Amino acid sequence: MRRALLRLRPLCLAVAMLTGLPAWADDIGGSVTKIVIDRQELAKALPPDAGTDVNGMIAIHEFGIPQVIIFKPTTRCWKVPSDLIDPTQTAKDLGNAEPIKLNDIALGDRLLVYGQPFGKKNRNAIVHVIVAEVVMDAGPGLLAHHWHPHEMFSLNWQKFGSFSGDGLSMKYTEPHSPAHNFTMSCEEFLGSTQMVKHQGGYYLDVQRGGESFSVFEGGTYDPVLGSQNEDRSPDGKVVSVFQELLKVPCSQGRDAQFRSKVLAVWRASEEAEPFVSIRGDFDLASATGSWKTRVQLPDADRCFLIRTLHPGSTAPPLWTYSCIFRSSTDTYERVVKLVQTALNLEYRPDETAGNVNQVLFSDPSKPAWKVVVTKNSDSSLVMLTIVPLQLAASMPEGLLPSEPGSTRAPSPSSQTSGGSISEEIEKIRSGEHVPFPPIQPIGGASSSASANGMGAFAVRNDTSYTLTVLFSGPTERRVEVVPGGSSSIELLPGSYKVAARVNTLDVSPSYGEHVFDRTSAGVTFYIQ
Fold first, then answer.
1. Reading across the β-sheet that carries 476-481, which strands appear in turn?
2. Total Cβ atoms within 10 A of residue 460
3. 134 in any annotated domain
4. Same domain, 424 and 508
5. Residues 230, 265: one domain?
6. Backbone angles phi, psi at 75, to 5 degrees
7. Contact indicator for 287, 474 with CB cutoff of 8 Å
8. Which of 92-101, 106-115, 143-152 shows the lowest per-residue confidence on average (mean pLDDT)?
9. For residue range 2-47, what is the model confidence (pLDDT) as tens digits?
């Protein structure tokens, strides 16, 4: 008959002694592979006769053995530090736990579950479905069995430990042999895994210094009819599922680090001089002038700070924190959701943004700042910006990651051939429009010339509508200015076509042409 992993019965009694629950109940543990909370999905996924008083269902795997947990309104959930869960002495863990809700459990979390089997009880069968009474969540992690070198093969619960995500590393904790504890990088953790055969059973092992740490059982040595045995290698699809599960703790560790760093930058915007605690040196390699930052978000191609001056004004400069990501299938959605959970704020679509998918986050208790997440028009780049309310978020030329085979990447707010900004300006020029308002110099040419070769241009919006100003020349820029607000940008010197519009059909757009140099200039918009 098929060989199966032994169940741990002493754990039931330990939990029962603390909770007062019946000692004959079963317990299971493993990593979460699926969570079902939606009522319609639950109706399809639940076993027959599960009842209507079900809050959710979670599937977990313990060494490759699938288990299903049913959550009732009476189910109690607890969060336990990952390095305090001992598979053989669960009772002590509840003293270090804090209550959580079903919604707080995430994919990849390592659970220990105390409950009762669903349906007919069979002591000799592996529990496949259990109605949970107590669920302990140790966060993203994996149960592991430590095969010590030169020891006989023996599945011994005293040698069980766990891998848990620790930022961008994996921490191994072995409760009964603390001397064996260690930490390894996520790259080393994922790169050292391989399928290994231990006396007829196939296990997915993490290899370290000649020692093996089995995290999943991928196949067994099965007797076949008669006296002949067949060595069955693991199913490729099963191994693939396990390998994906190995990535979850590291992935969630990166997500946790992302949220922590976004929150740190958001708080740094409140400093007397915004972002001074995370500001590095001026970046001499930047084409348009930016400052380095000591806070780099995970997976970002680059993070930087930009200083915007008020031309002709003694007001303090405005600082913006930006990170640019190369976009994959889910980069934009992932960044939006991580910001949402980090700041505990809901996003709102920016319907005034042209030809880009952009969302905004704002906090009523912090009205001077906003967080903007933008996906550019060709979906190749995503930008996260923490910016003062009066400034528009944009992706300036020279700060973007270079594409292979090119000297610089095109601006996400434009396209190199028939770009969207050029097309918008041409549409305004060829249609009904009024002359662009006079552009006035600010200060003397010698005193206001830029040291970095750029010209400073200020826009003031004295209308009651959101104002969009478009520039097409040596570089293409789009500036959004809120009613009554102002914004200042830098432009490469040269000849530009400029256009402006407000978000109402009752006001004609404007168009003009202007040569910008390294001096400061500005324009004020109002409605006649």
1. 434-435, 510-516, 494-502, 467-472, 476-481
2. 18
3. yes
4. yes
5. no
6. -65, 130
7. no
8. 92-101
9. 332 222 222 232 233 233 333 333 456 677 878 888 888 888 877 7
